Amino acid sequence: METNYGRCLRLQAAVIFWFALCPIQLAAQQTSSIHALSIKPTAGIDMANAGGNDRNFLFGLHVSYDRDLSASSQPWVALLNAKGLSFGILWHNMHHMKEIVDGQTYTHGTAMGMLSEVDFQLLQAGSAKLLFTPGIGLTYITETIDTQPATTTVGSHLNLTLTAELGLEIPVSDRTSLSAAANILHYSNGGLKIPNGGINTVNGTIGIKTALGHVQQTASAGRSDFRPIVGGSGELVVGAGRRGKYRTDGGFWRTGIYGGYNYYLNQAFGFKAGVDLVYYHQVFDGNFETTFQYYGSSYDRVRLGASAGAEVGLGRFAINGMFGKYLHYRSFHNIQWYWTSALRYYLTPNIALQSTLYMHRVQADYLNWAVVFRI
């Protein structure tokens, strides 16, 4: 029997085939451009759902403006083999993403958001390119624990969007390329409002990219005067954040401090190691109704851990990830390990703003909004 998911895949293929036929003949007579438009229909399945014809799935569309970085003079572009930067609109129909509570079926509605991505070339065979494309953005989801109080998956309307894609891009003319890719998509509010199980899907896309205008690539494209610190440096991160309280608009405030040492091999990549301290403004005292904080439940005001990881620099922006072991944490759940991911923006080489997501296993603990000082 034909499934809705199968029909979505065939519709996706038909749309791309139609778009691909239109521009190819004219495009072959024109030159390329630094600007482009991409259209990518998407279909995906829920990572948390068992197999079968009734498996949770979504479908949607990603439309983006793409800028070619291959001629950029910024050092990180050459060091990381970055080929493109994109800003787009992401739409997903999630009416087939279901949560069943006490025999009642609830769907997750519609998701609409903005997504920014960077293409990094891994391999090239002839004119075909294999690309790794991480993305980050914000998305509005229509159905939440407020509109459907029995559910636990989507805690708030506004959610962080994270994607990681592996794709193949094949030119079919001077100005048009076709693509096929697989990606992982994550929607979550970072623990700002609870419960918040989050949405995780594996998706497939086929798409078309066509050049816009005739602005040529130049060696000065994307020039920047910013120069990050290379070599060894000390670092202090001071910030605060809030984890939501269960099914209320309240929250638990925490202060987060990190001190450590960095060693950047070049302007694009470095290693990090240091100590994380989190101060609880409200500890867990056994009262589950008012003080329970899931894996972040602590009997003491302070938890302390040592972590190590790496940072990737993209000019003034940087992304880092670290994995740590607690040195002191009186945890209700006996949690021993943690990990963090962070997005950073450098105001100067010595001062930056950073958002750090603390994680226990696959559960978001809280977002720490901080100021970074590098010495």
Automatic annotation (TrEMBL):
It comes from the Bacteria. InterPro entries: Lipid-A_deacylase-rel. Keywords: Signal. This is Lipid A 3-O-deacylase (PagL). It holds the Pfam family PagL. Residues 1-27 form the signal peptide.
